[in-house]
Amino acid sequence: MTGQRASVGSVDVPTGHFIGGEWRPGSGETMSVLSPIDQQELTQVAAGGPDEVAAAVRAARAAFPAWAELEPIARGQVLDAFAQRIRERKQELSTVETLDNGSLLIANQKRIVDRAAHNLEFFSRRALELSSDVIEGSVVDNHVRHEPAGVAALITPWNAPLMLSTWKLGPALAAGNTVVLKPPEWAPLSCALLAEIAAEVGIPRGVFNLVHGEGARAGQALVGHPDVDRISFTGSVETGRRVGAAAAANVTPASLELGGKSAFVVFEDADLEQAAKTVAAQFNNAGQVCLAGTRILVHASIARDFQARVLEACKPFKVGDPRERGVRVGPLIHPRQLERVSGFVARALDAGAHPLLGGSESELGGLYYQPTILANVKQDDEIVQQEVFGPVLTWQTFEHEDEACELANGTTYGLAAVLYSGERARAERVASRLVAGTVWVNCFFVRDLEAPFGGARQSGVGREGGLHSFDFFCDIKNVAIKHDSFTGEAEAADG
Asked: Shortest CA distance to 123 belongs to which of 161, 65, 172?
């Protein structure tokens, strides 16, 4: 099937690499793609390595000059067509994404596919606003320009491959770069459909390339390639370190969005009903969300009342097949992830943690795990300090604002935080003290594409979103023109 096609949930999906506008089988090696829903094989895709990566980078480099020279409005028209076709194929993309990574079918149908399309549309329009800024000086006028960097390597994770691929593709392509996308090996199929859609809408050959493969071979070859100009990576801290080391060898700018262990702080004057519902929402996507507020920190005076509200809010979170109506928590992605989550919880229980909710694998078997909240944990416990990446929350209390901030900041991560308070002054004061790239106040997971996104500490390096994405995917050039240095229009034109 490699280099050809396979039927996945009655959707016809390409299974090869997409290089230079053509589907290629590569070396003939393959990777099995299993559905987390039932652990049955969906298909096999090509397993690339250095040779396929080199071919994709060559194709991207060859296509770069013509794509970069297009006016932003022309590139935007192609991206708008890309977005429209994504919406037209919503049902296919939703079906494949659910089968491939176990995310809820209704979430893909109602939100995720539309957001993927919006990512492309937003950045195609934002690129039109990248006019040359002029900084007037005493001797020169500085004309600051955003110019495409070249070939961008894009590496996306398995928890949201469709949405996060377009989050990277949008600004990279709108800025005038060409790209090589490396999908996650555990969930590569929606990315393959994106490549097919790109070809359908007329993205020129070589502008969008895709290479399947394991991180240790295809991923490492891509981030270490000397002809790659930008690297945008989303994934674990451990892999991020390797990406950063490879990028450093070639002095390649890298944007790294890594793991999180975000605090969810609830003060005594908060809207407890709404806060409790938001705590329950941390179990979305089976807790496989880097931004999730997994450390619940509650003012001691309301702990008992709030605990009851949280447990009530969690009752509708039914575990099961993500295609079924009413299911709120699907499977974990892979047996290795189930082993990871189960191990974290088992060790925490052995250390004295007490389950307020769940605490074990689901009776359904397979890769299903119960939504779990663990109390009686200490700040230096592994379960509090390390990212679990599953439906597991911890529960701690605090007595005052300083203690809340100390607990919230007491890990090596700094991706996000959630804060509930009824007092604006307190919310702003505490938010300013929290070490996090994003702090949500009285809400969660509201992502404005214009806003910067990224992490502090070990949660990452750099920011993307809005102009920040273009600052990353572009070379920023300053043209300093001396005042009154031209003698006439002809000389100005020559200059």
From this structure: 172
Known catalytic residue at 339: no
Pairing of strands 416-420, 263-266: parallel
Q: 111-162 pLDDT, tens per residue?
A: 999 999 999 999 999 999 987 789 999 999 999 999 999 999 999 999 999 9
- What pLDDT is attached to residue 59? 98
Contact 431, 439 (CB under 8 A): yes
The one-letter amino acid code at 427 reads: A
Of the candidates 257, 361, 387, 464, the residue annotated as catalytic is 257
Q: Which residue is catalytic, options 121, 185, 196, 290? A: 290
Give the three-class secondary structure for 214.
coil
Give me the long-range contacts of 356-362 (CB less than 8 A, separation at least 24): 356/307, 356/311, 356/395, 357/311, 357/314, 358/391, 362/319
CA–CA separation, 5 and 87 (whole Å): 22
Asked if 242 and 224 count as a contact pair (C-beta separation under 8 A), the reply is no
Inform me whether the pLDDT recorded for 494 exceeds 60.
no
The SS3 of residue 329 is strand
DSSP one-letter string for 351-403: TT-EEEE--SB-TT-TT-B--EEEES--TTSHHHHS---SSEEEEEEESSHHH
Backbone angles phi, psi at 127, to 5 degrees: -65, -25
Distances (CA, A) of 106 to 95, 189, 364: 10, 18, 21
Task: Give me the sign of the Cα torsion angle 285, 288, 291, 295.
Answer: positive
pLDDT band at 402 (very low <50, low <70, confident <90, very high): very high
Q: Which domains does the chain have, with CATH numbers?
A: 5-258+455-478 (3.40.605.10), 263-441 (3.40.309.10)
391, 347, 337, 322: which is closest to 367 by C-alpha? 337
Residues 6+ apart with CB under 8 A from 377: 348, 353, 383, 384, 394, 395, 396
For residue 7, count other CB atoms closer than 10 A to its CB. Answer: 11
Whole-angstrom distance, CA of residue 267 vs CA of residue 273: 13
Residues with Cβ within 8 Å of residue 432, at least 6 apart in sequence: none
> What is the structure's pLDDT at 490?
53
> Is 257 annotated in the active site?
yes
Total Cβ atoms within 10 A of residue 482: 10
